[in-house]
Amino acid sequence: MKPIVKNILAVVTGIVFGSAANMGIIMLSGSVIPPPDGVDVTNMESLKSSMHLFEPRHFIFPFLAHALGTFVGAYLAARIAIGHKMKFAVGIGVFFLIGGVTNLFMLPSPTWFTALDLLGAYLPMGWLSGKLVQGRMKSV
Q: Any idea of the CA torsion for 72, 73, 78, 80, to the nearest 10 degrees?
């Protein structure tokens, strides 16, 4: 397989599997930590109007979804990519960071969560996955 094709496949795989991990965790979250009474988490308007009812515990799974989804996507992209593995991992982190910023405009959240999410979930997970792949590749 040509390197350009494999690198494109790396990016697509990272985005698809990272997004799937994110959605899987979000889908699981309501059964582990139920939302406040009367909140329909499948409806954006319901979420917007009832965000004030959410406690810090309700933000655990969204953070985990963003962080682990980014990690999974970045790790897979770095593993598949031909060369520049850290750039691919961080690139996937940037992609998901853009999604996180976009989400903030659609669904405002508490300032503490916004800061934690944007600073801790995306670029650090992209970097960490890149470091893991680089370390793994050096030992092989």
A: 100
